[in-house]
Specification:
This protein has 655 residues and is of the alpha+beta class. The chain is built from eight helices and 29 strands.
C-alpha cells in the first residue's frame, strides 16, 4: 500500500484562517482560507499530488514559463500556437481539464519555440494528474499526443495549429474512509461549547463513503471553523489538518484540529465618528448585550440597527480581540448622515395609479431634538401630508414618538377628509416590535348625511417577524396583533373596541433545483373587527375595506366593503382575508436565479355584522422578479364575483 500523507499541515497560528489574538476581528468580513504546508516527508508526493497547494504551485511554474515563453516577434497575439483537446468517458472531467490546464495560457503565443513547446508538453501530464487528484482521482491513465494540423483549405500553405490531445481514463474516485475532528483551546472542555462541537460534527459533510474532492475538503474545514467563529470564538483557527491518501485502495482518511482560542464576551461600545448625536442614545439603538457571549449575529444585528436608524450613512462594527476576552471592546465606526435631507419620488401602482411624493428628514429637529420624517404624497386616489417625530431610545429600549397626518382620499364611493394624531412608545428587540399609543381620528365624509365623526383610541400592537430574509423571504413566518379600546367623541360619546390580526408564512416544498432553489407555498390571512353598538358612528378611517394588489387580487383597490343606506360602497366593521399562493423557480432568458412563477387564490369579505359576510374570490397567475430591493410581482387575476380580469403590479415586501 502506498500511503501518501497529503496536506499533513501542521498549521501555525500565523497560517490560520482567523485573525490572531491582538488584531481586530471585523464584521461582516469573512475569514480567509487556511493555508497549509507539506511536511518534508511528503516532498516527493507533492510533485504529483499536491492537492492543498496545487493552485499556488501551478501558478508559480506557469509564471516562470510565461516569462521564458515571451514571443520573440511582433506576431499577432490572436493566432493560435496550438489547441488543447481532452477526451474522456466522463465529459465533466474533460471540460474541467480543458478549462484549467496550464497549457491554455500559452495557446496564443504564435512564436512559441519548439523547445518551449516540448517543455510545456512534458509538464502537461503532471498538471493533469494534479487536477485529477484535486477531484479525488489518484490512479488516472493519461496518454498525450500531438496532432499536427492540416492545411486550412486547398491551395493555402498556412497550416492549422497543432493540437495537444490528452486521453484520460480517470479511474475510480477516492472515497472517505474516516474522519476525525479534534478541538483545543477553550472550546475543548468548555461545557457551554458542547453544542458547537456537536454541531460541527453533525454538519460535517464528508461522511464515510462519500467521494473526496479538494474543494469539498477545504469547504468542510472552513465550515467547521465558521461555526466556532460565529459564537464565542472570533479568533478560532485551524491548527492542523491532514488528508492521508491510500492511492492503491482509493481511500482518504481526514483529520482536522481546531484551536478555538479564548472565549470572548461583549464589553463596552466605543463609538468612532460620532459628533452630533447623544452617545448614550445611539448606544441604546445598537443595544450591544454587554456581558453576553460574543455572537456574530448579535454584532451584525446591532450594525444593521445603526445603519437603518437614519442617523448614519454607514455603520461598521467589530470586536477588538486585542482587549480582554472577558470584556472585549466593541468598536463602531460611524459616518453621520446630513442633518437634513429632501427626497423627491415618482411611482406607479395598479392600486393608486401614478404617485408623486416629497420627503423631508431632519435628524435633530428643534426644540425636542427628535428625528422628524415628513411627507407630502399625491396619487390618483389620495392626497396626504404626514409627519412623525421620534426620540432616541431610552436605556430600557423604549422610544417616544409623535405623529400626525391630514388626508383626503376615496373611502369606498365617498370622498373623506381625515385628521389623525398619535403619540406613544415603541420598542424593537430581535424579531419582535411592540407599540402602545393613543390615537385621535376625525373623519368627514362628503355627501348623503354621513357627516363627520371623531374618536379617541388607546391601542397596543405586537408584531413578530421570523422570516429568513427581511426584503425577499423564502421561508419563515410573521404574526401581528393590534388591540384597542376607546370612545367616539362626536357626534356622541360611545365606547367601542377595535382589533386586527395578521399572519403570513412561507413553506418550502420539494427538492432544490440545479440553482439551489425550491418551490414554496405562501399563505396569508387577516382578520379585523370593530365592536360597538350599531348606532355608534365610528370614524371612517377606523373601518375596513379590502381588495387590490396586496389583499384580494381580481378586484380594484378597496372595492370590497359594505353598503351605506344610499347604496354606495363604504367601510365595514368586520373583515376577513385569506390567500394561498404556490411559487415556483423559473428559468427566463437564461436567468436561473431571479425569476419565479406563481398561481394563487385570494378571498375576502367585509360586512357590518358577521352574518352578512360574503366572500369575494379571485384567482390567477403571475411572475416574480427578485430585484435587489425586493420582489417585483406582476399578476393577472380573475375576480369571480365581478367577472373581470385585472392586472396587478406590486413592488417590495412588507409585513
Amino acid at each position: 500500500m502506498r500511503d501518501r500523507p497529503l496536506f499533513t499541515a501542521a498549521q501555525t497560528a500565523a497560517q490560520a484562517a482567523a485573525p490572531a489574538a491582538g488584531t481586530l476581528a471585523a464584521l461582516p468580513r469573512r475569514p480567509r482560507s487556511a493555508v497549509g504546508h507539506l511536511t518534508a516527508g511528503c516532498a516527493a508526493a507533492c510533485a504529483a499530488l499536491a492537492l492543498s497547494g496545487c493552485g499556488v504551485l501551478g501558478k508559480k511554474n506557469a509564471d516562470a514559463q510565461a516569462a521564458d515563453a515571451t514571443p520573440t516577434s511582433s506576431a499577432s497575439q490572436g493566432a493560435l500556437a496550438f489547441d488543447v483537446q481532452v477526451n474522456s468517458s466522463d465529459r465533466a472531467i474533460a471540460k474541467h481539464l480543458e478549462r484549467h490546464l496550464s497549457l491554455q495560457r500559452y495557446t496564443r503565443f504564435p512564436d512559441l519555440r519548439q523547445t518551449e513547446f516540448n517543455r510545456l508538453l512534458a509538464e502537461a501530464r503532471t498538471n493533469a494528474s494534479d487536477l485529477l487528484a484535486a477531484l479525488g482521482y489518484f490512479n488516472p491513465e493519461l496518454q498525450l499526443r500531438v496532432q499536427e494540423g492540416d492545411t486550412l483549405e486547398e491551395g493555402e500553405t498556412e497550416l492549422a495549429p497543432r493540437t495537444i490531445v490528452i486521453d484520460v481514463e480517470p479511474g475510480p474516485q477516492a472515497a472517505i474512509a474516516s474522519h476525525a475532528i479534534a478541538f483545543e483551546g477553550d472550546a475543548a472542555d468548555n461545557p457551554a461549547a458542547q453544542r458547537q462541537r456537536a454541531r460541527i460534527e453533525r454538519r460535517w459533510p464528508l461522511k464515510e463513503g462519500s467521494a473526496f474532492t479538494q474543494t469539498e475538503w477545504d469547504s468542510a474545514k472552513q465550515g467547521g471553523l465558521r461555526e466556532l467563529q460565529k459564537l464565542r470564538y472570533p479568533t478560532a483557527q485551524i491548527s492542523d489538518s491532514q488528508a492521508r491518501v491510500d492511492a492503491d485502495a482509493n481511500r482518504v482518511d481526514l483529520r482536522v484540529r481546531y484551536d478555538s482560542g479564548p472565549a470572548y464576551r461583549f464589553g463596552a461600545l466605543q463609538l468612532q465618528g460620532l459628533e452630533r448625536y447623544d452617545a448614550e442614545g445611539i448606544s441604546h439603538i445598537a443595544r450591544i448585550p454587554t456581558g453576553a457571549d460574543y455572537s456574530e449575529e448579535a454584532l451584525l444585528d446591532a450594525q444593521q440597527r445603526l445603519a437603518s436608524s437614519g442617523y448614519f450613512e454607514s455603520a461598521f462594527l467589530m470586536i477588538d480581540t486585542d482587549s480582554e476576552p472577558d470584556n472585549a471592546t466593541v468598536i463602531a465606526q460611524l459616518r453621520e448622515a446630513p442633518y437634513q435631507k429632501l427626497v423627491f419620488g415618482v411611482g406607479l401602482s395598479t392600486d393608486a395609479g401614478a404617485r408623486l411624493s416629497l420627503d423631508h428628514v431632519h435628524n435633530q429637529l428643534w426644540p425636542l431634538g427628535w428625528r422628524a420624517v415628513s411627507q407630502v404624497a399625491l396619487d390618483m386616489r389620495a392626497q396626504k401630508a404626514s409627519t412623525r417625530w421620534s426620540a432616541l431610545p431610552q436605556r430600557n429600549g423604549w422610544a417616544w414618538y409623535l405623529g400626525g397626518s391630514l388626508s383626503r382620499e376615496d373611502v369606498g364611493d365617498y370622498k373623506t377628509n381625515t385628521l389623525s394624531l398619535t403619540g406613544g412608545r415603541s420598542k424593537t428587540v430581535g424579531h419582535i416590535e411592540r407599540r402602545y399609543y393613543l390615537q385621535y381620528d376625525m373623519s368627514q365624509v362628503t355627501g348623503n348625511g354621513l357627516g363627520s365623526s371623531s374618536a379617541l383610541l388607546g391601542s397596543y400592537s405586537w408584531t413578530g417577524r421570523y422570516f429568513n430574509n427581511k426584503t425577499n423571504p423564502t421561508a419563515g413566518f410573521g404574526l401581528g396583533a393590534e388591540l384597542g379600546a376607546g370612545y367616539t367623541l362626536t357626534p356622541e360619546r360611545k365606547p367601542f373596541a377595535r382589533t386586527r390580526l395578521r399572519a403570513q408564512g412561507f413553506w418550502p416544498l420539494g427538492q432544490r433545483n440545479e440553482a439551489g432553489r425550491r418551490s414554496r407555498l405562501a399563505l396569508r390571512g387577516e382578520l379585523g373587527a370593530v365592536v360597538a353598538n350599531s348606532a355608534t358612528r365610528v370614524p371612517a378611517s377606523l373601518l375596513f375595506l379590502t381588495g387590490g394588489d396586496a389583499t384580494v387580487r381580481g378586484y380594484s383597490y378597496h372595492s370590497i366593503g359594505t353598503r351605506a343606506a344610499s347604496g354606495k360602497l363604504y367601510g365595514g366593521r368586520y373583515m376577513g382575508v385569506a390567500s394561498l399562493e404556490w411559487q415556483r423557480p423559473l428559468t427566463l432568458m437564461g436567468n436561473v436565479h431571479d425569476w419565479e412563477s406563481a398561481v394563487f387564490l385570494d378571498t375576502g369579505a367585509v360586512a357590518n355584522n358577521t352574518g352578512h359576510l360574503k366572500l369575494h374570490t379571485g384567482l390567477g397567475a403571475g411572475l416574480r422578479w427578485n430585484s435587489p430591493v425586493g420582489p417585483m410581482q406582476a399578476d393577472l387575476a380573475y375576480g369571480i364575483q365581478e367577472k373581470q380580469v385585472r392586472l396587478h403590479l406590486r413592488m417590495g415586501f412588507t409585513f
